[in-house]
């Protein structure tokens, strides 16, 4: 990469892959994958043809037969061509590797906080002194959304869905989403660049201390017992202990009843170690129990239970603006209305591109 006159210039020979991306529900962006694991995300907010022209120009200039390129493609077909699902079913890749591949193919990106990669909570026990990962009772139910883990919650969600009446908005179970830019910053507030983004969102200061992420157990409890919190996780929960530690010594303030906010409070079985928490959490993700059940969660987030009657039956429907194709942003000519709609999409979250129309196969 060469810096010149305020610009960033990458050597074309280092370009390995080009992916078409959505940005705020418009097919207007490209993500470039370069040598050394570097990436770059570009949104073209003008005419829809601009992104297509940029894609064609990059492909023409690269002139490399093994350049991987996908422009607004069908993610399910790409999975079939790449044999990713077969690799996972036959245990040639790990659960985390497969989940990250699905996120990439479905348009999720580390470069877009509104479509950050999403992974599931897998454990449900954050209060025991020790944990036995061979015990099915320590795991959440992966066949149901995180917001519908108990029958009591499911009954309330069904009641909300059945009683919702609006001439323009379809009924939904959840008025919030399992992945939004706000949730990403909430989880990762102790690390940059998320700390700076969070401070910017709050007008130059960290959020109220009582609203910050302070406890793993408390976060899980809220996601499974309250109607307005259904957050799943970010990938960092399975490989990055630093997000749990206030190594930057940010002044996160003092709560009304729990003292100062600093490192995240961990479950007793982690023995006060962020490294141990990540190790056990990752071991749980790769456990036989999760391997035998995570295809159900894939059905909910990336698969046939994401939309339609199957989603309604699974208590898995969200506010309509979170879904791809729910609104044609280019057809909105009023700039005030368009800006309002974009703000809602950014705030409510975005459901990934649907990759599977049939039940996902289990792991062998």
TrEMBL record:
Domain BEACH-type PH: 1-59
Pfam families listed in its UniProt record: Beach (PF02138), PH_BEACH (PF14844)
Gene3D superfamilies, A to Z: BEACH domain, Pleckstrin-homology domain (PH domain)/Phosphotyrosine-binding domain (PTB)
Keywords, ordered alphabetically: Repeat, WD repeat
Location of the BEACH domain: 73-363
The keyword Chloroplast belongs to this UniProt entry's keyword annotation: no
InterPro entries named in the record: BEACH_dom, BEACH_dom_sf, BEACH_Domain, PH-BEACH_dom, PH-like_dom_sf
Protein name (database record): BEACH domain-containing protein
